[in-house]
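Hey, I'm writing a tutorial for new members on how sequence and structure tokens pair up, and I'd like a real worked example in the thread rather than a made-up one. If someone can provide the structure for the chain below, I'll link this post from the tutorial.
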Amino acid sequence: MTQHFLNLWIEARTRFSNQLEKISEEDLKKTLGDSPNSVGFLMRHIAEVELLFAKNVFKLDDVRITAKTVIDGKDTGKWTDLSDLKEINQEAFDQLKKAIEAQTNEAWEKEITTKEFGTKTLAEAFGRVVTHTAYHAGQMALAKKYGTIKE
């Protein structure tokens, strides 16, 4: 069961990870319409949430994360260093992969409680991080393709 969840996550995450190969530093500043969130902000936010899941939901104790996009609550325009963003996203991938792999087959049915989404089985909570990344990956793709840079 754990291997199936890992495979599902890796495949679903390609909606995001495939974009990372084609993003430029200029793309990081693009937003779509009146959306306040730039491509760079979304990249940072995805990484932070994946790291938070590895730490708080999957209980991977060695994860260290300060969720700056969550703390700021909005795009402050500072997420413009492509190499830094790629680095934190690789760390997020590695840590969440490690956290998923550490689960027993039985663990997926155990309930966890968080203030963000209440009580869910680990499998249900896992669905949240998968869809979170895919949701924001879609926003990134649209902003990259149709967005503009607001100075």
